[in-house]
Amino acid sequence: MKKYWRLLRDKEGLPTTLFHGLNGSRKLPLDTLLCAQVKTVTDGDARRATPYQSGFHVLPSLHETIKFTNRFRKIDDLVIVQVDVAQLHSKAHSPANVFLATKMRIRKKAWEQRLWVKALQS
Question: 104 is in which domain, residue-wise?
Answer without folding.
Answer: 2-121
